[in-house]
Design goal:
- With about 325 residues, this protein is α/β, with parallel strands linked by helices.
- Helix content is about 35%, strand content about 20%.
- The chain contains 11 helices and 9 strands.
- A 9-stranded mixed beta sheet has the order 1-2-3-5-4-6-7-8-9, with helices on both faces.
- The mean pLDDT is about 95.
- This is Acetylxylan esterase.
- InterPro entries: AXE1_dom, CE7.
- It holds the Pfam family AXE1.
């Protein structure tokens, strides 16, 4: 393992041109507008998690197309008044798991909402309108010949509606919503940051789904290799694939963010190459209202896709406490 991407001094200024379609904003406005009148149908059912310090609720809400999406809401047993909520999105190929598996933010005294990932978690199916389309194995090319049918249109919409669902619980302060996630979860975090205008903090770790044009040529690691394998076989669709994915680029969505952010990056990360992370970081908030002093990135020079791991969780806990104190 070695550093393979641009040197750090070049990464720090790396802000590539992004091939945004002319109707990028209209596409997302129309996508979300289609769901404005769709009832969230949120259900919070208490479950026995075997823990004495955290209360857990089994959550169901209506995501893209009204499809049911599952999740967990964890709350500290001892709580007084509405709490800031951290909405967490998950890595590629994973779901919400058992109640006790993902609980850091509730242990720290926050409400913690964990969104299951449609089609990837065991409990949220993907009602897939692209069934029958050609695709490579996995999710990255599912419906990729049409942005309206692309898998991540459904998943990003779920992410926006997860924020809305979290806000409905009486123990959650709807004015203090934070989003976070690692890898795919980091890419979804950036999508939520660009599509939800009133978040108070954004924490993407080693984010996937950024700067597709570079990612799909600089690494042959999965999941990006799903795209290269698809285009290798279906050469005639290369331009169509690139155009579809441009609507879902985390770097483009990050431009539209409005909240302070803390990124992390591993300089030996071959799954989410550093230049793709820096593309999102350096574009972050440039179309929104983010003071550049409200952007931080923590660099782990000798780490791969694990990034800063538990050490970075300590950084996030301290940073978020500062952000929430400032936002009050």
């Amino acid at each position: 393992m070695a550093q393979f991407d641009l040197p750090l001094n070049e990464l720090e200024s790396y802000r590539p041109a992004l091939a945004e379609p002319d109707d990028f904003d209209v596409f997302w406005q129309e996508t979300l507008a289609r769901h404005e009148d769709v009832d969230l149908a949120v259900s919070f059912q208490p479950v026995n998690n075997g823990l004495v310090t955290i209360d857990t609720f089994d959550v169901t809400f209506a995501g893209y197309g009204g499809h049911p999406v599952r999740g967990w809401l964890h709350l500290p047993v001892t709580r007084t008044g509405p709490l800031p909520v951290v909405v967490e999105y998950l890595g590629y190929g994973t779901g919400r798991g058992a109640p006790h598996e993902t609980r850091l933010w509730a242990d720290a005294g926050y409400a913690h909402f964990v969104m299951d990932t449609r089609g990837q978690g065991a409990e949220t199916p993907d009602a897939d309108p692209a069934t029958g389309d050609i695709a490579a194995p996995g999710f990255l090319t599912r419906g990729v010949l049409d942005p309206r049918r692309y898998y991540y249109r459904r998943l990003y919409t779920d992410a926006v509606r997860a924020v809305a669902a979290a806000r409905t619980h009486p123990d959650v302060d709807p004015a203090r919503v934070v989003v976070t996630g690692t890898s795919q979860g980091g890419g979804i975090t950036l999508a939520a940051a660009g599509l939800v205008p009133d978040l108070v903090a954004v924490m993407p770790d080693v984010p996937f789904l950024c700067h597709f044009a570079r990612a799909t040529t600089i690494t042959d690691m999965p999941p990006y290799d799903e795209v290269t394998r698809f285009v290798k076989r279906h050469r005639e669709h290369a331009a169509t694939v690139a155009r579809t994915m441009s609507y879902f680029d985390g770097a483009a969505l990050a431009r539209r963010a409005n909240a302070p952010t803390l990124f992390s990056v591993g300089l030996m990360d071959r799954i989410c190459p550093p230049s793709t992370v820096y593309a999102a970081f350096n574009h972050y908030g440039t179309h929104g209202n983010v003071d550049q002093s409200d952007k931080q990135i923590r660099v782990y020079p000798f780490n791969d896709h694990e990034g800063g791991g538990a050490a970075h969780e300590v950084v996030k806990l301290e940073w978020l406490a500062d952000q929430l104190e400032t936002s009050v």
